[in-house]
Amino acid sequence: MTIEYKKRPITIIDRTFTSISHVNSKLHSPYTPLERAQLRDLVKMLIRVGVDIFEINQRTVSFMQELHGFPLAYRFEDDYQYNARQSNDYGIEDIIKNCQYLIIPYHIAGFFIQEHHLSEHHLFAQLTQRYRNKIIIECNVANFQKLQVILMSDQWRSISRQYTIDVLRIRGLSQIAVPFLTDEISQIRELVQCSIDWCPCNSSYSATAITIEALDYTVDSISTHFNGGISDTVTDTTTPLEEIIMAIHYLKQPKGIRPDYSVFPDITALYESLTGDRINGMKPIIGKDIFKYESGIHADGIAKNHATYEPYAPEVVGNIRELYIGKHSGMKSLTSFMEKWKISITHDQSKALLQSIRAFSVNYKRNVREEELFYLCHSILKSHPS
């Protein structure tokens, strides 16, 4: 389901499975039949929301069967000794024979273009020959100045001669400023004759913003991760899949895309089950609490027109809107509950009930649950007869 933006296709590469395999490798436990079924369901649902290619690595060998038949990109590890050792132990060639791309970190590519290293690791040479025109070179840099140094180096020229580079992945970019993206991306375009994949880190929680800006400057693909990455590994996070595809859809309104965002709650449940990662309830797009609201002005505005406070309806992302009662609630919120329960209540009773609600909320330092509200209402009706 490739997104078309400004009459050009934008490919979405998802890196979620590399994290799932990493978590499982630390647990040293084989996948159960249930987990394998969950993996298959997760792949299908990610495709439904807009993913085109799944990035894999050596650690995903434990569930390659579940990924069979789906578009894949194999990434070599950052440790060249690990690559060589694992190639011999597990047979990388069998694993990646159906992959569309090979992703090679820049320093790994530079290491193996040296003749004696290339001859030692002949499998690497065979694979890069087989996958000509489907090579992604990944440069992990903090800013564009460091990237330009790489692209003008002798080693880059040697890599370009050794491989037919189809895509340059720009990863990291923790020290860039959005206002200068136009000039900087244009300069990179002049230095390379290939597509550009955008993979910024999210350590400053700005990856979605700079990715949206980069789309305007002819970036060809975006590397993402559901939830942006495992929650406790801020340094290795990237553009959250759910944020960028929703931003593209609602801010850029591309043609030729009909994704199904209503499966986000199911994806979240599968992701949490497979990784043990717990997604924050207020996480944009996929947080379970993002459509819960309390204050009177919000309640009144949403009752009149939900677009006053919501960029999209909760049903779009498979969520529901929930009104809470608490210390900030006003008459409008209370009226909504009374109408829902078909309870007739006078203005004086409503005022007394609001005071009771606020006292309860302050005392317990939380919102009032529905059953507690019903009890408070019953008490007020008894003590304040109409």
UniProtKB/TrEMBL annotation:
Keywords: Transferase. Pfam families: HCS_D2. Gene3D superfamilies: 1.10.238.260. Coiled coil: none annotated. InterPro entries: LeuA/HCS_post-cat. One of its GO terms (molecular function) is transferase activity. It comes from the Bacteria. The keyword Transferase applies. Residues 285-361 form the 2-isopropylmalate synthase/homocitrate synthase post-catalytic domain. This is 2-isopropylmalate synthase/homocitrate synthase post-catalytic domain-containing protein.
